[in-house]
Amino acid sequence: MTKVKMLVQTTYKNELLREGKVYDIPDDTAKRWIISKIAQKYEEK
Hints:
Helix content is 22%, strand content 40%. It contains one helix and five strands.
């Protein structure tokens, strides 16, 4: 699982993912979203 911060609002598996929020997403899906620029990898500080 990869933590991502959403850059857009979308639905994933019937769940609403809000822009600006952080979610745990499976690695392969997270990679596609990061490449597509709908999410960015979340770095905890």
